[in-house]
Amino acid sequence: MSITVEAAKPRIGGIVHVDKDHLLDDETIETVRHELEQRGVLVFPQINASDELQLAFTDKLGDRVNFTRQVPGSDASSPDVYKITLDRALNSEPDYVLGTFFWHIDGITIDQPLPKATVLSARKLSDSGGATEFANLYAAWDLLPEAEKRALENLTVIHSVEAAVRPVHGHPSEERRARYKAMAAVMEQPLVWTHEDGRKSLLLGTHADGIVGMPGPHGRALLTRLQQWAAQPELVYTHNWTVGDLVIWNNQGVMHRVVPYTDEGRVMHRTTIAGKEKPGHAATEEHIQRIFEIA
Ligand SMILES: [Fe+2]
């Protein structure tokens, strides 16, 4: 056995011990696939993968997702490796990166199957802040009281980029709104996602802006409460990075955010693995309008 996985916390997180030379082995890939379902997020401490190795690992796990190319600030010279940094020399739209300070699921406002997993490696770190937190959205569902599960089961949620960056920009300019519209969709997603394997998870994040059929404030209050529930400490793994760490998470069952940092030197390299399941669809104009009504 060239790979072992130890639990980081009982309900989320695993630390993977494998030699870099065995990262692409079939046994490693099968173990990673299995453990991602169980543990949500896996850490490969100081494995020091190059972009080439990170891409090869990504390719072994599935198809590279294309939405990386649509993200503002993508580096055209290496479109499948997205640089998450506030350094304008590497990422021309660091404002978009500030949205990562808030809980989110990658790619949830793109009208395509939800990305299966995200791979992130630490290239340069900030002097303070910069840890990444992961919350288990399968466990968040499993642990809800039965009566609450019944009340939530059939609700539908509106997700938008505009909501995701509202904590960053407040009310966006018309020009910015137009750009959001060009790069993403306003999506309707089930609050409770029943995956093809029958397991259920919540779909939550700052991009969740309202519940279909509910006045805006009621929907947002419920979503805020559920987000706080899902982010309770025992369901969260916080990764304090060391340069060379590589982390992969099950983007279909985990939400994440970064502890705020200001250091423009911090650089993370992200690759994304496409999903096959598409829980939602583009929102109707009527449903979008309703979440801006207050009664
Ligand atoms: Fe993210």
TrEMBL record:
<keyword id="KW-0408">Iron</keyword>
<dbReference type="InterPro" id="IPR042098">
    <property type="entry name" value="TauD-like_sf"/>
</dbReference>
<keyword id="KW-0479">Metal-binding</keyword>
<keyword id="KW-0560">Oxidoreductase</keyword>
<feature type="domain" description="TauD/TfdA-like">
    <location>
        <begin position="10"/>
        <end position="272"/>
    </location>
</feature>
<protein>
    <submittedName>
        <fullName>TauD/TfdA family dioxygenase</fullName>
    </submittedName>
</protein>
<keyword id="KW-0223">Dioxygenase</keyword>
<dbReference type="Pfam" id="PF02668">
    <property type="entry name" value="TauD"/>
</dbReference>
<dbReference type="GO" id="GO:0051213">
    <property type="term" value="F:dioxygenase activity"/>
</dbReference>
<comment type="similarity">
    <text>Belongs to the TfdA dioxygenase family.</text>
</comment>
<dbReference type="InterPro" id="IPR003819">
    <property type="entry name" value="TauD/TfdA-like"/>
</dbReference>
<dbReference type="InterPro" id="IPR051178">
    <property type="entry name" value="TfdA_dioxygenase"/>
</dbReference>
